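Chapter summary example: a protein plus magnesium ion.
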Amino acid sequence: MIARQPHNTNQGNILKVAVLGLGSVGKTTISKGYTGEMTDPKEISMTKGVDITIKRIAQFDKAVTLQIWDFAGQRQFRFMIDVFLRGVKGVMYVYDVTDIETLLDLSEFVELTRNYLKNHYYPKVPEILVGNKLDLDNVEVTVEDIHGFMKTHDIRKHFLVSGLFSANVSEPFEYMVNQIVNKEDNLAEELLSKYSNV
Ligand SMILES: Nc1nc2c(ncn2[C@@H]2O[C@H](COP(=O)(O)OP(=O)(O)O)[C@@H](O)[C@H]2O)c(=O)[nH]1
Ligand SMILES: [Mg+2]
């Protein structure tokens, strides 16, 4: 069952990250590839609901538990958004480089996510774009498509990976953790300096 996670509760050093994108783009393969849970990629069938993967990492001097929420539904995202995004600290939008539709379709995920975060008064969270299946020859998505998408949605960071070969899969997660931890440190410092003047 999915645990209740009110976003205003102190969750210690658990960082929840949401991985979004259409079915079959490779979200589960990337997540499991990074956390090391995967045995054989062929064993991963199209999951239903939510898949949660945990990875404990050391970030500078801090121990961090990364909780990766891999969204498995296809078009039902809007109905699960509350459970899925509650308490989220970072969002990864994944598309398949051999299928332009999977990139274009991310617009809806971005809009729904931003609306949710705005309506629930979340501070801005890091959002990154990840193109998967870089190992395949029939690449359809162009650099212009990627830049266009990033410009339209004001997404600043993009990674190309191959989940199947676990190529480059750590980079997007590590970047995200870095962003989140630095942001929290800055916030803590800001508050400290603010109150030390009182
Ligand atoms: N060639 C190739 N196939 C991949 C890659 N990543 C995932 N796949 C395949 O794409 C299919 C869907 O992957 P999956 O992780 O279940 O996608 P999800 O529905 O987004 O979680 C599976 O058959 C995977 O083996 C990749 O980087 N390269
Ligand atoms: Mg999946």
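Key point: The chain has one domain: 2-195.
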